[in-house]
Design a protein that fits this description.
Elements: H1 6-24, E1 28-39, E2 42-52, E3 61-62, E4 84-85, E5 90-95, E6 98-103, E7 109-115, E8 122-129, E9 136-143, E10 149-153, E11 160-161, H2 167-176, E12 183-184, H3 188-198, E13 204-211, H4 215-224, E14 232-235, H5 248-262, E15 267-273, H6 278-288, E16 293-299, H7 303-308, E17 329-332, H8 335-345
Parallel strand pairs: 1-3, 1-9, 10-13, 10-15, 13-14, 15-16, 16-17
Antiparallel strand pairs: 1-2, 2-4, 2-7, 5-6, 5-8, 8-9, 11-12
Helix pairs in contact: 3-8
Length: about 375
């Protein structure tokens, strides 16, 4: 393996010094769990080990599909970036009757895949435990063998308005604005619920270039805005082994390929926006794997959003990638128009009732 990038080496050295200092002052491990996913043959579990005051750092933080989050996650966005990662911590994951072992990586993250788990399709729970902590449950969504449809969605400017590419706007939304003050894109939540109503048991996966630090407030936002819940495939914050920052396009491309490998029998509805690279990424994926894509839906940003979403600003409509012959692509300004388009195409049925709740564990 090639030598890690200097930025990663510097970050690791700083984090190691901070960890020694905090542990010397009595700080201990704290486990945060995220929504995972799987099939009847495997399960993928996400968690993170960070440092907190006083032994386990207070009550365990459960980042799962029930939305049972600590009140602190409603604070301003910058607070979620202050967590000190605990690297190299042994972690035990209990999955049904099985016990699987792993270690947190350089950012404190745990991304574990286990086979022969014995979990039934639907929402299930696993338990994550690290030394000095109480066991923390995590929800995972197990996809049934008979499911052949799924939904993959971008987050920024697709389900939530953030205008992410512009640095100042992104910094304001990420570090200052409270999660509960962000706005859902018009009509997207009922559109997603209509899709899942037409395809019972279908998984929903959110793919974003955002940092894992933002997972707790993002999941709370999705829950309260009425979106169906599912795993968030995010990125680590800070330098990587190859450079100062990771490639957002590469992360999304790799995530799409991972979904195609993990669920070879599922055809995905890909939903994104035209403010970044979603149209080209989805078109490339559909061209390479047409049997894995049912349709592509692209939300068209308004002229104001287009200006805010690009450093140089532009008012003209972005160029559209060449359409594939086998995968239909729909362009619409909001979720209501997308739903009408898919209804006409026969991919979904009648609109969902306004009081319908998003898919999540019935607890």
């Amino acid at each position: 393996m090639s030598r890690p990038h200097a930025a990663a080496l510097i970050e690791d050295a700083v984090n190691a010094r901070i960890e020694r200092l905090l542990r010397g002052r009595g700080w201990g491990n704290r486990v945060l769990t995220h929504i995972g996913y799987g099939s009847t043959s495997f399960v993928r579990v996400f968690a993170r080990v960070v440092l907190g005051r006083g032994g386990s750092g207070g009550p365990p933080s459960r980042q799962d599909a029930t939305g049972a989050l600590a009140p602190a996650h409603y604070e301003r966005g910058w607070r979620v970036f202050l967590a000190a990662p605990a690297s190299g911590v042994p972690v035990t994951v209990t999955i049904g009757e099985r016990t699987v072992h792993a270690r947190s990586d350089r950012g404190g993250h745990v991304d574990l895949v286990a086979h022969d788990h014995g979990l039934a399709p639907g929402w299930q729970q696993v338990v994550v435990h690290a030394p000095g902590t109480d066991p923390v449950p995590a929800d995972v969504f197990i996809v049934g063998d008979d499911v052949d449809f799924g939904l993959i969605s971008d987050i920024d400017d697709t389900v939530i308005t953030t205008m992410l590419p512009r640095p100042l706007i992104a910094a304001w939304n990420t570090f200052v604005l409270r999660a509960k003050n962000r706005h859902a894109v018009h009509g997207m939540a009922p559109f997603y619920r209509a899709v899942l109503s037409a395809h019972p048991g279908a998984p929903t996966v959110y793919v974003s270039t955002g940092a894992w630090n933002t997972a707790p407030p993002l999941t709370r936002f999705l829950l309260e805005a009425g979106y169906p819940l599912g795993p968030l495939l995010l990125t680590d914050w800070g330098p990587t082994n190859t450079g100062w920052f990771r490639s957002g396009r590469e992360h999304k491309r790799d995530s799409l390929e991972r979904m195609a490998r993990d669920f070879p029998n599922i055809r995905w509805l890909l939903v994104g926006d035209d403010g970044q690279h979603d149209p080209q990424l989805y078109a490339d994926f559909a061209e390479a794997r047409p049997d894995h894509v049912a349709a592509v839906c692209i939300r068209q940003l308004t002229a104001t959003e287009q200006v805010l979403s690009h450093p140089m600003g532009r008012l003209e409509a972005p160029a559209r990638p060449s359409a594939t012959h086998s995968v239909p692509t729909y362009w619409a300004p909001d979720g209501h128009a997308m739903r009408r388009a898919l209804e006409e195409a026969g991919l979904i049925g009648k609109p969902v009732a306004a009081d319908e709740q998003p898919s999540r564990p019935g607890r």
